[in-house]
Structures are given as structure tokens and as C-alpha cells.
Amino acid sequence: MEIILLERIEKLGAIGDVVTVKDGYARNFLLPNKKALRSNNANKKVFEANRAKIEADNAARRSDAESAAEGVNGKQIVLIRQSSNAGHLYGSVAVRDVVEALHADGVTNVTKAMVVLERPIKTLGVFDVKVALHPEVAVTITVNVARSPEEAELQSQGVDVMADLFEKDEAGFTEDYDPNAEPGEIASVSNDEEETAEEA
User: Fold this and answer.
1) Which stretches does DSSP call E strand in the chain?
2) Neighbouring C-alpha atoms within 13 Å toward the C-beta of 142
């Protein structure tokens, strides 16, 4: 389907561009959200007549987004979650969790539609998440997923908490073994111990 874009859409085009998209994408997303018009002669005339207003509205929204971006860009949010010993979360961190954490932190102008999460976060760690406040204004926030505030603090300083945990486990474990024993053989008993066992 051919459409006329009413706002800039990433990977498609800018305001006023006539582009071809899949019918479902146009019918289910672009047209109902007033991001585009069907490309026909009547709509082209309507668009040209209103082009100045559409562009002025877009510029106003963009300047609002740019001023809001200063308060959001580079913000770090901490999410405390339970995880397995290997660092895999029980569940995952989704867009809703990020938005709720931002709202709790006083950033109320971010909606779920603005958060661009390629896939849900399923492990502990520090992740960069893109927030598109406007089609032309995007900022990055840091999402710190940890098991406790102390771990979150360490992770924010660049410490890999899971690697440290495994190092501690390995350091605390030593096994008593006989270097001469064959694999699967029990450590040999010394001759003195055998004699005392026979006498008993």
C-alpha cells in the first residue's frame, strides 16, 4: 500500500514522503495512529494544504522532546530481581518494568511506546536501553539489573558480579587427591595403615 508519511518514521522516511509498506502495517499501525495517510489524489491535496501546520506541529513536539531529553538522557535505573546462581532471572525485565522504574524516579513523560527494547532482559547486568521521545529525538538510559542494592552498586562501578561469585566459589574448594592414582581409583592406603588394620 502506498502512503504519505505524517511524521518521520525510522527506516521508512520523513514527513511528506510517499512510501510503499505492507497492507497490514499500514492498516493496523500507521493509519489508526495518524502517522500516515493513504496515498491518493484527495489525500495529497489535503496534505499539501496542511503541510505547513503538520511541520510546525512536528517541530513543536520535537523541541518539547529535546527539552525532556535532558532529564532522561544517561539516567540510570536499578531493578532488583531474583535470579539463579548462573545469573539468569526468574522471569524477565520488560518495557513495562523500565517505564515503571522511570516513573518512580520522577520521569513521568516516558510511555511504553517510547522504550525500544530489542528483547526482554533475562540476565543480571548493566544494559543500555534506547528511549525514543520523538521520531527524531532518541536518548539512552542505563538499566542495572541486580539481586541487591549492594550488587547494583558494584555493577555500576564496572564489577562483573557473576564472575566474582564464581571465582570465590572456586577459591574456596580444594580436593584432597593422590597424584599417582588412576582415574576412578580410591586414594591408596599407606603400608603403615595396612599393618595396623591387619593387627586389629
Assistant:
1) 2-5, 18-20, 36-38, 76-80, 88-93, 115-116, 121-123, 125-134, 137-146
2) 13
How far is residue 198 from each of residues 48, 133, 189, 191, 195, measured CA to CA in Å? 107, 84, 13, 11, 5
Pairing of the two strands 36-38 and 2-5: antiparallel
**Tens-digit pLDDT profile for the chain (200 aa)?**
999 999 888 888 888 899 999 999 999 999 998 899 999 999 999 898 988 898 888 888 888 888 888 878 888 889 999 988 888 888 889 899 999 988 888 887 888 888 888 888 999 888 999 988 888 888 999 999 988 888 888 888 877 766 665 555 444 445 555 556 565 555 555 555 555 555 55
Q: Is 83 helix (H, G, I), strand (E, B) or coil?
A: strand
Q: 64: which 3 cell numbers? A: 518539547
Euclidean distance between CA atoms 141 and 130, whole angstroms: 6
Return all residues near 116 (Cβ < 8 A) that are at least 6 apart.
129, 130, 131, 132, 138
- CA 31, distance to chain mean position in Å, is 28
Cα torsion 30, 32, 38, 42: sign: negative
